[in-house]
Amino acid sequence: MAYQPRAPNHNEDDHDNNRRLYNPYQDLKVPIQTLYKLPTSPEFLFQEEAVAQRRSWGENLTYYTGIGYLAGAVAGASKGIFEGVKASEPGDTTKLKINRILNASGHSGRQFGNRAGVIGLMYAGIESGMVAVRDTDDIVNSVVAGLGTGALYKAAAGPRSAAVAGAIGGVVVGLAVTGKQVLKRYVPI
Prior knowledge:
Layout: H1 32-35, H2 47-51, H3 57-87, H4 94-134, H5 139-153, H6 159-186
Helix pairs in contact: 3-4, 4-5, 5-6
């Protein structure tokens, strides 16, 4: 039976002398460390995953898609703020100006975020595919993934646009990876 507070005029000689508070942990005389044997190192389903010193394809997919969407949404919202300020008219009230700014930043943020998220998704998929096919993780995988992502993203606009976008994607990723290597080498962190 659950604990019930006693009334101020409660007499100790009543019939409920035999009641006590319920403690659900009273029979566990084991330290908590031995009760739950939790691992101290990461667990992997396959031993090959434990040997690799990089993110898995699922983590890559989540990371690049999320970073792409977040960066695109922030850039789009910034652009939308300027569009909203430019679109305001001299006779607008403050409430209407704020509404224009919020609408424009939300619209541009969604558009840019979705585009950058899709680009991140394609890049992560192509890069993970390249790592699986070549069985090595190096700069070539990243550059080819950038090239393929740019070409695939603009494939609907025609072969010329796809080739230009692919070249731009490969160069941008190559510069980013090279810049990362330079920072790792020369900047002490």
